[in-house]
């Protein structure tokens, strides 16, 4: 009997959430007030991390900026101050180093307070085919793009759950939803980041911590320099993305507690196709929607964002 009731509940809730999602397409969502929140952005020294910091600057938040690049951090701090940020702290932190993440996190708590919006944005791409990638680069990719999320969550989530208030943001990738030729380690790291973020979100709901929101961002490739030289096979359907547009949509998603954000919108259609077509066609889809034209551009260089 319990099985039948639970099955019915799943069906009813599925219908409800689909109707809710459809209605939200036509009704503007109310944005929450983030004044006074403490926002930590990893990889804030350049790219999307810097742009998100600039867009948070006038919203009355305290900004905590992390990056491995000291020069980039100082430039971001200067820019966000010009944009109106009043409270700025920046720290050099190698997010691939667990001990360093914990050490800098403790420093943040002492100097700025408990982080209430955590944005895991730091990422790297090696740009080598799987069999050509040295083990050390594969390990580095997993450490930065995946394991760093484990350590930042461990450091800052306890305060959020204690207050039943906060927001966890994972800047993943469309390459974490569909395999891409020539980016095996990168795809694996992003698939893992999405799975981790989804699982923690479910844990929070199961334990009644519904005040801690989650947002998982899966953009196509962005013109930040990380994927210089790459081109889309279908530029009209799935174009390379403008960084400022992506940063704007991410901030909107956070302010409206949007759980998933896929960019461009055509990626929702692509993912729907992946889930219904046979495996071999799905592989072909992955080849033609992915960074199929990137390998010569990378030439084995590590790209960071």
TrEMBL record:
SUPFAM superfamilies assigned to the protein according to its UniProt record, in alphabetical order: NAD(P)-binding Rossmann-fold domains
GO molecular function: oxidoreductase activity, acting on the CH-OH group of donors, NAD or NADP as acceptor
Keywords: NAD, Oxidoreductase
A Gene Ontology term for the protein's cellular component: lipid droplet
Oxidoreductase listed as a keyword: yes
InterPro entries hit by this protein: NAD(P)-bd_dom_sf, Sc_DH/Rdtase_CS, SDR_fam
Family: Belongs to the short-chain dehydrogenases/reductases (SDR) family.
Protein name: Short chain dehydrogenase/reductase family 16C, member 5a
Species per Swiss-Prot/TrEMBL record: Esox lucius (Northern pike)
């Amino acid at each position: 009997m319990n099985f039948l009731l639970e099955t019915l509940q799943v069906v009813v809730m599925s219908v409800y959430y689909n109707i809710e999602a459809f209605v939200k397409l036509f009704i503007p969502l109310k944005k929450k007030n983030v004044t006074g929140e403490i926002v930590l952005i990893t990889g804030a020294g350049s790219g999307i991390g810097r742009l998100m910091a600039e867009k948070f600057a006038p919203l009355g938040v305290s900004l905590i900026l992390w990056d491995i690049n000291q020069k980039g951090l100082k430039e971001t701090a200067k820019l966000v101050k010009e944009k109106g940020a009043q409270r700025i702290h920046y720290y050099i932190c190698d997010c691939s180093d667990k001990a360093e993440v914990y050490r800098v996190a403790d420093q943040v708590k002492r100097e700025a307070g408990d982080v209430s919006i955590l944005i895991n944005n730091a990422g790297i791409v090696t740009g080598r085919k799987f069999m050509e990638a040295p083990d050390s680069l594969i390990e580095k990719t997993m450490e930065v793009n995946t394991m760093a999320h484990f350590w930042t969550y461990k450091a800052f989530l306890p305060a959020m759950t204690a207050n039943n208030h906060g927001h966890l943001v994972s800047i993943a990738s469309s390459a974490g939803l569909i395999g891409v030729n020539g980016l095996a380690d990168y795809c694996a790291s992003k698939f893992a980041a999405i799975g981790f973020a989804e699982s923690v979100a479910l844990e929070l709901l199961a334990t009644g911590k519904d005040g801690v929101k989650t947002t998982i961002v899966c953009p196509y490739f962005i013109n930040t320099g990380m994927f210089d030289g790459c081109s889309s096979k279908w530029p009209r359907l799935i174009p390379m993305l403008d960084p400022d547009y992506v940063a704007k949509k991410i901030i909107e998603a956070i302010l409206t507690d949007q759980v998933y954000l896929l960019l461009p919108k055509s990626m929702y259609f692509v993912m729907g196709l992946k889930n219904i077509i046979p495996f071999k066609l799905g592989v072909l889809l992955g080849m033609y929607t992915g960074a199929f034209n990137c390998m010569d551009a990378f030439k084995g260089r590590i790209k960071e964002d």
